[in-house]
Amino acid sequence: MEYIPGGSLLQYLNRPTDVTHLLRQPPTGIYPRSLVQVLGIAEQLLEALQHIHDRHVVNLDIKPGNILIRRQSLGFWRSSVPQIVLVDFGISRDLRYPRAGVSGYATVEYMSPEQATSHSTNPVPIDIRSDIFSLGVTLYELLTGQLPFGNLGETLDMDFSPPPPRSIRPSVPPELEALIMRALAKDPRYRFSSAAEMRAAISRVQKPVDWSMTLRRAFSIAALASGIYLGFVAPPHIPLPPWKTPTPVVSTAMPTRSNTPTPIPSPTCTPTVKSESPTPTTRLTSTPRPTSTPTPRPPTATPTATPTMTPRR
User: What predicted TM-score, i.e. pTM, was given to this entire model?
Assistant: First the structure.
């Protein structure tokens, strides 16, 4: 069994999706949908009804709560029309096996007059045109945000007619209003004879442009083209500002050892100071020079002592 996490069409109708919905909340809590969405949902529902009617099955419980929405992938590319799935065949009937009455209970607001009056003591023939009536109620609610019949009495009253959708929403096309009012006819003989006939009438309604999908796809294509362009074209060189210029780093590497021997300083002599007293003869004495422990290096000449002049007594 498939799991459909998108919720029901009833939850979808209770959720605002437009700026006008946020500014003005309808008293019924049902937000009308765009013409693009209504026509798209109607075509999908009629396709599902045509499939089950061709197999001699009538649903008898078509309403927004029994229509699930499949979550679509590629949200930036999807259409604004949700993908729907018709469920709940608990009280459906196989027309090849006639029986008296209707087993189970349907929702009163969406029931056809013949379905509401059919019971075991007063069996009324029910066929696929009962689903056409329930679908008309659903489409009326999608367009106007309200139900065409407020109670069962209005549904059974043959003289009562719901207000046309254009009186509530003037932007509804006249041909769409005409086919919905035909689907809501109290007498089954004046409704569409099949889902295929109603689907053909829906296809002749001029569909407006789905601007939501068009703008979303145009933005996606522009973003993709910009990404491809930036991937192939190298960006221009922009010099860094002075405060972001990298600071030169002083190298701390040890200097390499050179094979050139270090020159030895030449010996120095201390000059003799003349005085009035007889100058004694001086004698040179060598004074050893303090040295440190040498590191291993190529052999060099031994340093010589520095001669100094010492006065003779």
Answer: 0.65
